[in-house]
Every structure is written in C-alpha cells, then in structure tokens.
Amino acid sequence: MRSLLSLCLWLLCVALCRADMVPGSWRVRPVWSGAPQSVVETPEKVYFMIGGSLFERDKESEELKAYTVAEGCGAYGAVKMAYSTSAKMLAVAYESGHVDLIDRDGTIVPMPEIRDAEDVDDRTINDMTVDGDDCYLATAFGVVKINLRTRRVTDSGRYGRDVELVTVMGDWLVVKSGDDVMAAPKGGPLRRFGVYRPVTQRGGAVGLTGLGASRLLIVMDRIAALAEVDPESGLYKERAWVETAGGVIVTDGSGTAWLPGSDGRIWSVSADGHTASVAEMPADALGRTTVVSSTDPASRLWVLSAEGISQLTAAEGGWRTTVERFIPQGCVFTRDVSMIIPDASGQRVYVSNQGASNYRMYPADREGEPQTTTLMEDGDAVNISAVDVMAVNAVAARYQKSAGPVALSPERIAQDPDDPSTYYLATANDGVYRITDRRLTGRYDGSNAPLEDHYGWRVYDLSFDRSGNLWMGSTSEGGDAGVAVLPAAKRRGPSESVGRSDWVTFDLQGAVLHKDVRVFHCRKSNVTFVFDSHGPSGLMAVDRGATDSDLTDDRLVRLTELVDQDGVVFTTDYFTSIAEDRNGSVWIGAEGGVIVIDNPSGVFDPGMRVRRLKVSHDDGTGLADYFLESDMVTDISVDGGNRKWVATGSSGLYLLSADGSEAVEHITADRCPLLDDNEVKAVYASAVDNTVLIGTRNGLLEYGGTASAPAESYSAVKVYPNPVTPETSGDVTVSGLTEGSLVKISDASGRVVWQGRAEGGMLRWPVENSAGRRVASGVYYVLASSGRDVTPARGAVARILVVN
User: Fold this and answer.
1) Which of 98, 134, 426, 758 has its CA 20 to 30 A from that of 12?
2) pLDDT tens by residue, 468-519
C-alpha cells in the first residue's frame, strides 16, 4: 500500500495556498480583548488568560496553543485558573460554571457538575485555589471541592450566599462572603454553612492567600495585610503590611508570597511576618493593567497586558527581555462580534463590535463602547482599532474621560476604495473618523458635514458607490440630513477643506431616521436602498440615474407600505439587514421575516410587490407560514452557490436554497459551539472560499460551508483530503470550479464512476460510485465542464488518489 502511495504522489497537484475548510467543520477564533486576567507558570509551560481565552506556551519548544471549544474545551469565557504541582493539572473555570481539567499533555477532562447542577440559579465561579491534589471553588452559591487525581467532585456546600474568595491555610479552608472572612476545617464536610468560624471582617478584600499553618495574607485594593489566625480560639492579629499595586505574583511551599509593591518594587512576605524588597519591577510590569507571574519572581517574570505577553529576566542594572512581547496569531480583538463587513473584493473582512443599536443590544445599549476591530485577510487577523482619537462632540468627550482617547460606539466601517490601509468609521456620537494605520487622519462632524446633534452626531452607516462617492446615513428628525453623499473628488482631499455644502442630500419625504440606518448600493442595478430599524420610516430607494458619478439626477422614493405576493401589507417595527444575490435580487431582513425584491428597479413602480419567504406545512394542505414571522433577522449573506445564510436573534442560523423555498441547513446551539442562546449577530459567506464567518456575543466562529465562490477557470482547482486513506472520513471536496460545473469522476481507464453538479465553485464526492459503493484503490480523475457535458477528452482538472 505504501509503494502505491509513493508511486502516485507525483500525480497530485498541491496548491500552496490557504486551504478551504472541510465542510461541516468548525474553527473558533480565540479572543484577545479587554483586561488581562491571569498568568500561571509551571515547570514546563506558561498559561495565560485574557478576554476569556486561554493560551499555552511550551517553554522548551516555544509552541503556542489556544484552548477553544472547537479544540475540546467544554465551554467558552474562561474566568479563573489554578495549577496543582502534585497532580500536574491545570483547573480552568468558565462563566457558565463549567470546569476543565487540563494535564501537561493538553488532554482535557470536562467537569460539568456545577454548570449542570439543578436548583442553582447562579453558577458563577468567583475564585479557585489548589491544595495538593484538591481544588476548591468559591461560587455564587457556596463552595465546591474537586479532587484532581480522581477527577471527581468530593464535597460541596450550597449555602444560598455568594462566596467571593477562597484559600487554604494549613488545616483550614478560608473563605470570604460579604464582609466576613471565615474558616472551616478542610478535612470536614462542607455542606453546612454553620461549619465556618469567624476570622475577621474585610469587605474590601480582593484576594486571600494562606501562608503556612496559621498565617493569612489578605489583599485589598492597595494594601496587603498578613495576619496570624487561629480560628479555633478566635485569634486574629495582623503582623505585617505591604502597599501593593496588584495581586499576589506567586507563593511557595515554605510560606512566602511575592507581591508587586506600589513603590515599583517586588516585595516578599514570609509566614513569620518578615517583609523584604526583592527587586525593582520592570517598567513593562508597572501599572494596574498588567498581570505578572513567575516561579522565581526575583529573577524572572512573565508580564501580560492588552499589548501582549513577554518574559523579562533579571540582569545587572535592571531587566532584559528574553521573550519579546507578542500576541498569539489568529486572535480577534472583540468578543462581541456584531459586524462582519467585507471590502469590495471580498479579500479583506472587518470584524467589529457595535455601539448603540436597536437590535444588537448586549449587554445594554453599548453607548460609549470602545471600538475593537480586527482586519482578516488570508487567514491572518490584525488589530486595526483606532488609537489616540480625541472626541470633539461633548457627549463622546464625556465618555472618553473614563475610556481614554479611543474611538467610541462603532457603527459601521467602510474601506477607502483608493487606499486599503485607510477605512472610515461611523460612530454613534462623534461623527465619522478616517483612520489610516490606526491613526486619525480626517474627520467629518457637525462642522463639515450635514449632521444633526441628537445626543451627539449619530452616524450609523457609511458606504461607497461604484464611483467612490461616500454615502452617510445618520439620525435625522424629519430633515434631509439623514442621507448625505460626499462626492469622490471632495472626499479625496483633506477633510478640513470639506464644508457642509459640499455634501449632496435628499428629500426624505418626512422620514424620521433613528438607529441602525443602512445605505445599501445594488451592484447589478442603479438602485440604493435606505432604511433604519424604526419601521414607521418605511423603506426608501434612490434611483442613482445613468451614472454614479452624476449625483444631480438621483431621486428618492419612500415606500411606507410593502405589499407581498398574496396582496398582504407587510409592516414591521424593524428593518435590520440587506444583501444582493448573484441574480440581482435584494433580500431584506426584518423583525418578522425576510422579504425579497426580485426586480430592484421596479421599486419605483407604484404597483411593485415584494416576495415574503414562506415555509410549507408539509402536510398535504398546501398551506404555509411566513418564514421567521416571530423572530428577528439580524443579518443576511449570500454564498458562492447563491444560497442565503440568514442569522436570527433567537433561533440560530439558517441556510436557505437559492430561491429561499427550502431550508438546507439549520444551525442551533446543539451544533454550534458559541450559540448557547441561539443568537447570531452577524454572518458572512466568504467570497474567496467556503468559509462562513459567524458573529456571536461570545466570539467569532468559522464554519466550513458546502459551497464556494465560482472561479473564472479551472487553473486553481483544489482537492482535499488527498490522498484518501482508510483513516479518511467524510467526503472529498473539490473547489476552484467554475459556476455550477458539471463534474464527473472517472477511473484510470476513463470509465465514469460518479457525477454531480457544483454548488457555486465547490463539489463534494462521497468516494463512492453511482451505486453507492466505495470505489477501489487507484487514481481517479476529476473531469469538469461549465457546459452540459464533459468527457475525458476535455482533460482532467485534478486527480485523486484513493488507498483502501
């Protein structure tokens, strides 16, 4: 078998480019966002946690690994971790209450007992500590004890009260609940809250660390107190204090703890009350936005911040960097993925959070939310969030007092058609920013654009037409400023040279635009659609005339009523999303379903009707219900097979057939790693391969679809997996085909064994003949044609090796 494999490998064409995803497979992008959470150093590895994502770096090989639900973790949103040196096991707690145990080989053992516990309303895990082979968890309902060797819950107590902190001090388990610090014998049962004895009251405590048999280190916001404690007699006496700038760096088995001092030095605190200045903190580790860890803090530190993680080693006269600061590749920089916006080519995709919105609210209106935007290209992910942006509007400036000089409340992103390094950012309070290489290079606000001040200059959409004119959709209380166009020639100059009169506006015929304004340009017709998420405004359409460059002949109509194919008037409180398919039909999502305008140019005809999608009862009655009539459509995207991906607010993600008459696939929480509530905020079917990007409040998913964009020729056909071995499961995927290709699979003698039709530019072969039996070992030829027939004489576009 190996000889056959060796002889035939030369037949295989391997494309040295980014491979399409295996259909039906998942990838979860790790998140790098927000404040650093934790760093744990072990003899072999360094674990670090930020944005709810957990990473591992092998010290010897320097190999990096991200732990995500797609790679075997039992949950997302990591919140706490602790390492047992005796069991050589890392315990990781998640927002849901789930716990994973990870050994040094990366094997994950799920512990779902807390998450699945009955009669528990709040499963939050607040704190955790290890003591030998045992791990103690402080939770919103009590305490849980897990033995890391047996991997079992060995004790628990449901107290009906929030336990915030936990540590082990000798033979005692010490916890904090409310203002009270209490202790219970760690060997005894923990089921009743009455087993705890009072130690002291420290309402401001943010950390507890046991040192030795009778010493307790209580860490407050800016001071740490070492106390001698005997819960049996009630003794509590403070022995030493250290002014601290954060939590504990590390403790050792001899009863010593190291802390970052507020004076910029590292301090040791021993169980006997002795404190000493160990070393000066490196500049990179100073401040309250970093987390440091080490097994030997006097000589080596791992420093984690929003800018990355690095290792510093003590050297004469200071510290030297031994591991340069880095951020693991492939991360996205927002967890709440609300917008997935491609550029005109589809090669680059912007992934971002969103500020104020009527239908993407999490956890609230997100007013003043800092922009966190990722640019994805060829599988790489780069942080392009704007920096050093000073707000002009008083509302946005007020938010910046706490958020700092960053862009706030992002609403829409549009890439500059002349310069891929530049994008325009619409904000909910401060107008429009032009950002180049993350820096502000221009702005449009109330001084140089027709923007009304409604609790700030609220701009919800930006888009470019085919001539490079910049269209802006904003809040408007019945005026004409809601839709404005900046001609390309003016836009290409400095924003300081632009005046309000340079913008072209439209008579909106009394429409009042609120939040989530959308301005969408059809590419296969000269129609631009405008709507917001406040249904009474209706649907507006702009006839762009013969050319996009001439704005003087554009005219706008407002459709306050939409009549469907049955003559029924369609009304909704929210229009939400829009997409144009490969035939030029326009698909609009709303609260209450999906409407389709098959002839966009016909919207200017008073008798125009829309098509509302329906779902058949399949009971022989011929009756049907409106599709998603009781749900909110949050986004729509068209894949390479002209099928429609429809994201919803509470029922997951649908893949519809090209005409919308059939649900080809329905993805809900039982299949999708991050959809615990079935809310999908955004979806985008890639224009370059079969990847479907799915935005959720818990992060970004990538799903392997069964269609990809068609190619212009057969010059870059890809086959995977190839070769097909006995260990291979699933279908063989052929991509890079032309639109709807007829594909035949033939054996070496030229006999056709199977045939099918591509979805867009992709086809799946089940490695079977037309009778449904697995084919024999050998080389098989992929014959493809965009016409009605294909023969071996036309030539093979790819070869597949099958080894049984």
Assistant:
1) 758
2) 999 999 999 877 789 999 999 999 999 999 999 999 999 888 888 989 999 9
Helix, strand and coil in the chain, % to nearest 5:
5, 45, 50
How many other β-carbons are positioned within 10 Å of the β-carbon of residue 386?
24
- Euclidean distance between CA atoms 798 and 719, whole angstroms: 7
Which CATH entry fits the domain spanning 339-704: 1.10.260.40, 2.130.10.10, 3.90.180.10, 3.40.50.300?
A: 2.130.10.10
Tell me the sheet residues that pair with 421.
Answer: none
CB 787 within 8 A of CB 711: no
What are the residue ranges spanned by the domains of the chain?
2-16+710-802, 34-326, 339-704
| DSSP 3-state of 319 | strand
Residue 260: left (phi > 0), alpha (psi -120 to 50), or beta? beta
Report yes or no: 487 and 497 within 8 Å, Cβ to Cβ: no
Q: Picking from 445-459, 559-573, 787-801, which range would have the lowest pLDDT averaged per residue?
A: 787-801
**Preceding peptide of 363 cis, ω within 30°:** yes
Query: DSSP labels for 243-312?
Result: EBSSS--EE-TTSEEEEEBTTSEEEEEETTS-EEEEEEPPGGG-STT-EEE-SSTTTEEEEEETTEEEEE
- For tokens 């070869």, the residue is 799
In angstroms, the CA 352 to CA 347 distance is 17
| Nearest-angstrom CA–CA distance, 32 and 779 | 45
Residue whose C-alpha is closest to residue 521's, from 609, 448, 586, 608: 586
Taking the C-alpha atoms of residue 722 and residue 744, their distance in angstroms, rounded to an integer, is: 17
Rounded to whole angstroms, the Cα distance separating 721 from 765 reads 11
DSSP 416: -
Neighbours of 438 (CB within 10 A): 16
At the topology level, CATH places domain 2-16+710-802 in Immunoglobulin-like (2.60.40)
User: Does 2.130.10.10 match the CATH number of domain 34-326?
Assistant: yes
Tokens describing residue 617 = 């009862």
Q: Do domains 2-16+710-802 and 34-326 have the same CATH topology?
A: no
Question: Which position has the higher pLDDT, 448 or 264?
Answer: 448
Chain position carrying tokens 């010490």: 174
Sheet holding 152-158, edge to edge: 125-131, 134-139, 142-147, 152-158
Stretch (H or E) spanning 488:
helix 488-491
End-to-end CA gap in the chain: 8
User: What are 651-686's pLDDT values in tens digits?
Assistant: 999 999 999 999 999 999 998 888 888 999 999 999
Q: Any idea how long the chain is?
A: 804
Cα dihedral 233→236→240→243 (10° resolution): 150
Distance, CA of 637 to CA of 684 (rounded, Å): 5
Phi, psi of 11 (to 5 degrees): -75, -15
For 309, half-sphere exposure in the C-beta direction (CA atoms, 13 angstrom radius) is: 28
CA dihedral 353, 358, 363, 369 (to 10 degrees): 40
What is the model's pTM? 0.90
